[in-house]
Design goal:
Distance between the termini of chain B: 36 Å
Oligomer: heterodimer
Shape of chain A: globular
Strand content of chain A: over 45%
Largest sheet of chain B: 7 strands, mixed
Number of helices of chain B: 0
Number of strands of chain A: 12
Order of helices and strands of chain A: EEEEEEEEEEEE
Helix content of chain A: under 10%
Chain lengths: ~110, ~110
C-alpha cells in the first residue's frame, strides 16, 4: 500500500526567508504527486502536481517542488515566504486507477514570523 | 460556478443520532469523494464514487454510508453517530484521474 510521510508537523520561518517542506512517499510504481494548501477554516487548494516529465514543477503562489525518485521525495520550496503563506500543507500520492484515490500525508503547519 | 459545496457547515449530534451530509458539484465531474480530517492524520478517504449510481469503500468506511443518485450530488450518512466520528468532513470531485477539487468542509461534533 502506498503511504506518504511529512516529517515536520510544525515549521516556523521568518517572513522573507526561504522554505522547504519535506515529503517522502512509498509507492511501487511511478507516483503521481500533489501538494495542497489549506488555510484556516478552508478547504484544500492545489498548489502543484507531478505526473511525468520535468522533475522540477512550478505551481501557484511562487511554489515549486522537485521529484527525486532515488530519494522517494517530493519536497516543496519557496524562495521567499510571505505572511499570507501561513497555512497547513499536505503532500499526496495518487494512483492512476479506476478510483483516482489519493493518499495524504499528515500535513505540515507553517507559521510565519514578521 | 460554485465549485464544490457542502451542507451543513457545522453540526452537533448526540451519540446515536443520525444525519446526512450533502455534497454538490457543478463542474460535471464523474468522480466524487468523502474524506475525514483529524489532527495529525491528514485526510483519510471514507467512500468514493466513479459515477452516478456507483459507490466504493475507501480507507475508513465503517459507520458511514453513501449514495450517488444524481451525478452532481454525493451524500454521506451516519446512521448512529459515535464520538469517534467527531471530525471535519471534506467532499471532493474530479473529472477522473488528476486534481481533486475540495469543498469548504463540515465540522461535526458528536457528544
Amino acid at each position: 500500500a502506498q503511504s506518504v510521510t511529512q516529517p515536520d508537523i510544525h515549521i516556523t520561518v521568518s517572513e522573507g526567508a526561504s522554505l522547504e517542506l519535506r515529503c517522502n512517499y512509498s509507492y511501487g510504481a511511478t507516483p503521481y504527486l500533489f501538494w495542497y494548501v489549506q488555510s484556516p477554516g478552508q478547504g484544500l487548494q492545489l498548489l502543484l502536481k507531478y505526473f511525468s516529465g520535468d522533475t522540477l514543477v512550478q505551481g501557484i503562489k511562487g511554489f515549486e517542488a522537485e521529484f527525486k525518485r532515488s530519494q522517494s521525495s517530493f519536497n516543496l520550496r519557496k524562495p521567499s515566504v510571505h505572511w499570507s503563506d501561513a497555512a497547513e500543507y499536505f503532500c499526496a500520492v495518487g494512483e492512476n486507477n479506476a478510483g483516482n484515490m489519493l493518499t495524504f500525508g499528515g500535513g505540515t503547519r507553517l507559521m510565519v514570523k514578521p | 460556478n460554485a465549485g464544490v459545496t457542502q451542507t451543513p457547515k457545522f453540526r452537533v449530534l448526540k451519540t446515536g443520532q443520525s444525519m446526512t451530509l450533502l455534497c454538490a458539484q457543478d463542474m460535471n465531474h464523474e468522480y466524487m469523494y468523502w474524506y475525514r480530517q483529524d489532527p495529525g492524520m491528514g485526510l483519510r478517504l471514507i467512500h468514493y464514487s466513479v459515477g452516478e449510481g456507483t459507490t466504493a469503500k475507501g480507507e475508513v468506511p465503517d459507520g458511514y454510508n453513501v449514495s450517488r443518485l444524481k451525478k452532481q450530488n454525493f451524500l454521506l450518512g451516519l446512521e448512529s453517530a459515535a464520538p469517534s466520528q467527531t471530525s471535519v468532513y471534506f467532499c471532493a470531485s474530479s473529472y477522473g484521474f488528476g486534481e481533486q477539487f475540495f469543498g469548504p468542509g463540515t465540522r461535526l461534533t458528536v457528544l
